[in-house]
Amino acid sequence: MKRLIPLIAAAVAAWLLPYGLGGYAIHVVDVAIIFAVLGIGLGLAMGVAGQINLAQIAFFGVGAYAVAILTTRAGLGFWTAAALALLAAVLVGLLVGLPALRMQSHYLGIVTLGLALAFVNWITNATVAGRAEGISDIPVPPLFGVDLSSEYLFYYVELVAFALALAFALFLTHAPLGRRLRAMRDDDLAAGALGAEIPLLRMTAFVLSGLYGGIAGVLYAGLIRFVAPETFSIANMFLLLAMVIIGGRRSILGCVVGAVALSLVREALLDVSAYAQLGYGTVVVLVVVFAPTGLAGLPARLRRRRAAGARAALGPFRPYERADAGADGDLLEIDGVTMRFKGLTALDQVSLTITAGEIRGVVGPNGSGKTTLFNVVSGFYTPTSGRILFRGREVTGAAPYRLSLLGVARTFQNLRLFGDLTVRENLLVGLDRTRTRWVWRYVALPWSVLGFERALRERAGELIDRFGLRDFADAAPRALPYGIQRRIEMARAMAMAPALLLLDEPAAGLNGEEVRQLAEIVRSIRDSGVTVVVIEHNMGLVMSLCDRVTVLSGGKVIADGAPADVAVQPDVVAAYLGDSMAAPSESAVEEATR
Ligand SMILES: Nc1ncnc2c1ncn2[C@@H]1O[C@H](COP(=O)(O)OP(=O)(O)OP(=O)(O)O)[C@@H](O)[C@H]1O
């Protein structure tokens, strides 16, 4: 109920607003709402999904021009034209999203800007689009006899459309899809390894942007009933960008506040518009430098600062239940895999088999190809030659998300936690095992998404307790000590309920006690029925933990067997281990397990 009160108050205030406004003021408000819808679309692509999109103004234009052309040239009714205009904007969103499959960051910025320029060029020169003069005489949208040529009445149409658009955007960003989009923004490699279909997610971001641009375009056509190229100019794209950056692109409400505020400021500064552009530019630079998360991000920044000071401790790990009968047979077969990078052969005809239920160590000197082996197995690289079979099924070259959904989980040597997601959200990304095509439910069955989210949160709570992370559940991981981050990464990998867990140097940076706890956790994971492969430089840990050890040197397997046997093989000793492993292995074991 407490939450409903501000919502009801806002709705009543919005409903009453036109009563206090003059004719020009209501026009300004109507335009501000359109920019707010555009801002939400841009925020979804740029802020939430991290896809630079300078074509938002073109999506807006496609929506508005499609209505204009279809009503005045093809004689369609306003709402039929509006539906087709939304479809057109979504399709253009898909088209503009295509380059995002291959390129990111500033390259994507340049390409989307190019596409926006191409659109302006087209509408300025095409006869069907009315060239520089634009298209006038767009019909008044009919609505059960309500006269929508009145800007006061059109305000209510906009208000309903805006409320729905805002509610849907907020719902998306707080649901599993939004979390995945944010995870992709933070680290697309890690998100892929956790089951996110990166190409489809990028397209989804642009489709959403297109849809919101289209809605804004339809509203604009209905309100102004005239379209001309200057409305969709690059200058206005930058104004839109300024709105979203100042408001806070990562927050949907921030985008709305920025859009409305700057629309009003723009009106106030109409007489000095030449200087106003300069002013927006300066404010944007100041915001980017001093408050990169915009106005909306300020409260969170302050809160986080306070949270960092709080005292919190890692709890004990609660072991998994033992699986009754462990699986047997070969889980992973690597068959003659070679991986070449230009002139360098990182893996050379590597063959090895991982049996279900074992803990396998992979050791070797720096640069011997261990991480490359993991990258090949988890789908980051497609091997130059050779085959990989997982549970008897060929998975050579399969995308990371596919392997993740099949049951391969991994951690990273240099920790790849999603820095802007909380610890709980990091685990939730791992727990979400759905495919992106599941997104139709967001439109058709939104309540089923809410139920799914509740179930995920319950399981996240259990995982947080099991890994002793209760005190940090709602903190940002990057503020936490290294040992805790490693524990979170392990929990996130286990959230995927994998059959095979690949751990890349899990003990790096840990102290003696943390290494002991790590060994306990890995054993418990194995006892629960998960097969573990661990790359490690800490020989004591390898000797005590692993059932078998594979030694790589120069990209080749030079030994494979029980730790004690491998440690004394002369070529292993010669290649890399020397006396660090062969002689004092027992004392090292003691040290690691003490
Ligand atoms: N994407 C890449 N492009 C070019 N060379 C690469 C790439 N990835 C790895 N290599 C090269 O392949 C070789 C093996 O690297 P890899 O990271 O697999 O070794 P490693 O055994 O994991 O080493 P470390 O113990 O230092 O992590 C190195 O010479 C490395 O420079």
TrEMBL record:
Q: Has keyword Cell inner membrane?
A: no
- Which domain of life does the UniProt lineage start with? Bacteria
What is the protein named? ATP-binding cassette domain-containing protein
Assigned keywords, A-Z:
ATP-binding, Cell membrane, Membrane, Nucleotide-binding, Transmembrane, Transmembrane helix, Transport
SMART domains tied to this protein? AAA
**Membrane-topology descriptor:** Multi-pass membrane protein
UniProt xrefs under PANTHER family: AMINO ACID ABC TRANSPORTER ATP-BINDING PROTEIN, CONSERVED COMPONENT OF ABC TRANSPORTER FOR NATURAL AMINO ACIDS-RELATED
Q: Where is the chain membrane-spanning? A: 32-50, 57-76, 82-101, 108-132, 152-177, 198-220, 252-269, 275-298
Q: Which organism is it from?
A: Nonomuraea guangzhouensis
Alphabetical list of Pfam families matching this protein: ABC_tran, BCA_ABC_TP_C, BPD_transp_2
What GO molecular-function term can you cite, just one?
ATP binding
- Subcellular localization, per the record? Cell membrane
The record's section on InterPro entries has:
AAA+_ATPase (IPR003593), ABC_AA/LPS_Transport (IPR051120), ABC_transp_permease (IPR001851), ABC_transporter-like_ATP-bd (IPR003439), BCA_ABC_TP_C (IPR032823), LivM-like (IPR043428)
Q: Look up the signal peptide feature and give its range.
A: none
Residue intervals of the ABC transporter domain: 332-579
